[in-house]
Design a protein that fits this description.
The protein is mostly helical. About 75% of the residues lie in helices and about 5% in strands.
């Protein structure tokens, strides 16, 4: 069981999602494909060619996806904390449910991008799909690590 009430857990999860999504801008900009995965995600959501997606739509898609993934993590971790061992708390967050939740959400984010967003987007970035997917895999990994580190830290701030 989590040491936090559900309302406080929700605040931690939302804040973690925002922070992780904002911090993800750094590795996305320094990677070879830049912010292109965000354009692909926005294109997949709107069924437009990624070349037709503007920077604002790409940024919104990126940050909304980061917060949505954190909400998924929060719900999953909350449920897992009720059934998995809650030994080794990390500042009130049980380590096993936390790490399982982070891993599951990280894999989901990657798979959703590769299997849903990218195929729906298609268009002008189709020939660059492999490097974009590789960059997305690294970005999803960095997001997961960031979430894994940020959540226990933010719990201490309440």
């Amino acid at each position: 069981m989590l040491a936090l009430p559900l309302g406080q857990w929700a605040v931690v999860v939302l804040a973690s999602g925002v922070l992780a999504a904002v911090l993800m801008n750094i590795p996305m900009y320094v990677q070879p494909e830049g912010y292109r995965p965000a354009y692909v995600a926005a294109a997949g959501a709107t069924r437009r060619d990624p070349g037709e997606v503007g920077p604002a739509a790409a940024a919104v898609a990126h940050h909304v996806a980061g917060v949505a993934a954190a909400v998924l993590y929060g719900g999953l971790t909350f449920a897992l904390a009720a059934v998995l061992p809650t030994l080794l708390p990390l500042n009130g967050v049980p380590a096993v449910p936390h790490l399982v939740g982070v891993l599951a959400v990280t894999l989901f984010v990657y798979a959703f991008f590769e299997r849903v967003a990218l195929p729906r987007a298609g268009g002008s970035f189709r020939e660059d799909a492999d490097p974009i997917v590789r960059q997305w895999a690294l970005s999803a990994f960095i997001y997961g690590v960031t979430l894994a580190l940020v959540v226990p830290v933010l719990v201490t701030q309440l």
